[in-house]
Design brief:
The structure holds two protein chains of two kinds. By secondary structure, chain A is mostly helical. Chain A has 14 helices and two strands; from the N terminus they run αααααααααβαβαααα. Chain B is mostly beta strands. Chain B has helices at 2-20, 126-129, 142-145, 228-231, 251-258; strands at residues 32-43, 46-47, 55-56, 62-63, 67-79, 84-86, 93-97, 105-111, 113-122, 151-152, 157-166, 179-185, 199-204, 211-213, 220-226, 244-245, 262-268. Classes of the chains: A mainly alpha, B mainly beta.
Chain lengths: 349, 269
């Protein structure tokens, strides 16, 4: 046991020291060259190293849940672009199931509304939902704050981040926002091609990009590959009759509309749609080719010239998929500063 | 910019409109004296008793009340010379809860003077509903409002009034209980317009006595809230047909009903 154990510890220490170096070079929030100005008002919550690190610790801390078993990172796994890889809907506390697919956490600084129905309009208010939701973390905010106040480390971390040991809802939410704001995915092959950093599309990817612009970019607008609107994309109405955006606006014209998801890192965010019904990229494209149903408020782009769906040959489909894979951002998916550090830090004392 | 213009349309405009009617007569901070508003929740002429007492509404349905709470905010007092004094915005949010008597007495600080009109909002104005989280303190803090069940996290916004109870008229819910639940909120929407249940109540005081706020005194305006009005005012609400009303069009009827439940019945100077 001992030898393996020591090797393990040495490995951890090496990991820790390298992580430490990266954090040492913390540069705060950087707007990528090919992105517009953020929607989030950065001046109202400037990202600092200390605030970000506190947010990261909170993000991975299961104390945010009623029985200390579920953290934000449970259903938002970095390697899956902070989605719950392989889960159509997530199992939260006591293995309770939700009704919507866990969305990615990336490029939140540019997001205008949160959740599939856009019911939350500010990033700072977003974590309140999973923390208190019955099927997710099922905890009371006041109890979360009480647990953090009693913790040996948090008061000092709040002081480092926000100037005083006082632990409040606002500071907690702002720290979580700082972590999420740093989850920027902007280094895919697509980005490097667009920024002319030396990478080039293959012929198939290039053709796929042109087809994508013709057939998909009406909703999946660059550079985020979403226009952040709410649309009905013609998938069959779910058995639970989830009416999406209607629940928030009570406008019948919003029934069955859901937020257009970003396609960045789409290759690792399987399954797809608000209820995770499609388990493959080809299934999505086949839906647009053959599966679009004329349900209430179907998006006009999906019934042009009296035809439902988007016409596409097998060859075109293959090319579009080749292009979509250029949206993978391995740097983001493996960036050590976004990973859980808590375990490593235990050995730092 | 597009977002901002929508924001202006749905959120700021109504607020500016509300605000423009207010002329402040004194700067807050100096020489302010206490003034109290006492909220007495009633059922008709009787004092409301939680859980144990049975009541009946205009539809002839018997019921009890297990919880009642509502936000009171944006308090304005009109002085006898016609000038308005608006309580400083940050100090103007209160949650009145039937199970916590201390919350039923609201303490305000106002300039020394005689006042003959009281105006308040039942609920939380749209601006505060959309304000940065660091400005949400006291009863608006998520650690308070959410614990009290007065905030919808999934559809960002405060619940303005919550009333729950049991009634044999209510159909059995999935747990087998016969409960009714009214959770009324909706500030008009952030980026798309939706229901707005923000209600402003104005009570003229002279009939039951103008209030004289003086240093060292405990001037108190007593206001009754008759919860029978929740069931029966403009709309005749039946528990049997609407046992559960939350974020829905029908909630407009309930808000219009409870809008009429407040009466000024006594002043102590």
């Amino acid at each position: 046991m001992n030898r393996g154990y020591y090797l393990f510890i040495i490995g951890l220490l090496i990991l820790l020291s390298s992580a430490g170096k990266i954090i040492h070079g913390f540069e705060g929030f950087q707007k990528p060259y090919n992105f517009p100005e953020p929607v989030y008002e950065m001046a109202k919550n400037p990202v600092t190293k200390e605030g970000f690190e506190l947010g990261r610790k909170l993000f991975y801390d299961p104390r945010l849940s009623r029985n200390n078993t579920i953290g934000c990172g449970t259903c938002h796994i970095q390697g899956a672009a902070f989605t719950h890889h392989g889960h159509d809907v997530s199992h939260g506390i006591d293995d309770r199931l939700g009704s919507r697919n866990s969305p990615p956490i990336m490029n939140m600084a540019w997001s205008k509304a949160f959740f599939w129905d856009g019911g939350v309009f500010h990033l700072d208010l977003q974590p309140l939902v999973p923390i208190t939701a019955h099927a997710e973390m099922d905890e009371k905010m006041s109890v979360v704050l009480e647990k953090l106040r009693k913790h040996p480390d948090y008061p000092a971390l709040y002081k480092k981040a926000f100037g005083s040991e006082e632990i409040t809802s606002a500071k907690t939410m702002k720290a979580l926002s700082q972590f999420m704001l740093m989850c920027v995915s902007s280094n895919s092959k697509y980005d490097k091609v667009m920024r002319r950093e030396g990478e080039k599309f293959t012929k198939e990817e290039e053709q796929g990009y042109k087809l994508f612009q013709q057939k998909c970019s009406g909703c999946h607008t660059e550079p985020f590959f979403t226009d952040y609107s709410f649309r009905n994309n013609g998938i069959a109405i779910g058995r639970n009759d989830d009416r999406g955006r209607f629940i928030i606006t009570l406008d019948t014209l919003d029934a069955y509309k859901f937020k257009v998801p970003s396609l960045r890192n789409i290759d690792v965010t399987v399954p797809y749609m608000h209820d995770g019904r499609f388990y493959g990229l080809d299934k999505i494209l086949d839906h647009y080719r053959y599966g679009v149903q004329n349900t209430p408020n179907l998006d006009p782009l999906l019934k042009q010239n009296g035809q439902l769906g988007i016409p596409m040959t097998d060859e075109e489909k293959a090319r579009i998929i080749a292009f979509l894979k250029t949206l993978n951002d391995p740097q983001f998916l493996t960036n050590p500063i976004l990973a859980e550090q808590e375990f490593l830090l235990q050995y730092d004392k | 910019m597009k977002i901002l213009s929508k924001f202006l349309l749905f959120v700021l405009l109504p607020t500016i409109f509300l605000g423009s009617a207010t002329k402040q007569v004194a700067e807050p901070g100096k020489n302010l004296v206490p003034l109290f508003i006492q909220f007495d929740n009633r059922v008709g002429a009787q004092d409301l008793v939680l859980d144990t007492k049975e009541y009946s509404n205009a539809s002839g349905e018997s019921f009890n009340i297990s919880q009642l709470q509502y936000f009171i905010s944006n308090i304005i007092l009109r002085r006898t010379d016609g000038k308005d004094y608006a309580i400083h915005q940050d100090d103007s949010y209160f949650l009145v809860q039937e199970n916590k008597p201390a919350t039923q007495q609201i303490k305000l600080m106002v300039p020394n003077g005689d006042y003959n009109q009281l105006t308040f909002v039942v609920g939380v104005d749209s601006l505060r509903n959309t304000m940065n989280i660091s400005r949400r303190t006291g009863v608006l803090d998520p650690a308070s409002s959410m614990d009290n069940g007065m905030y919808w996290s999934w559809n960002s916004g405060y619940i303005f009034l919550k009333m729950e109870g049991e009634s044999p008229a209510a159909p059995a819910d999935p747990t087998g209980n016969r409960k009714f639940r009214f959770h009324i909120g909706g500030f008009g929407g952030y980026s798309a317009p939706t229901i707005n249940n923000i209600k402003s109540v104005t009570l003229d005081l002279p009939a039951s006595g103008i209030v004289k706020a003086r240093k060292g005194r405990k001037a108190t305006i007593s206001v009754s809230a008759d919860i029978l009005k929740v069931f029966n005012a403009t709309t005749n609400l039946s528990i049997a047909t609407h046992p559960s009303v939350m974020f829905s069009e029908y909630s407009l009827n309930i808000a219009n009903n409870y809008h009429q439940m407040f009466t000024h019945y006594r002043t102590e100077n």
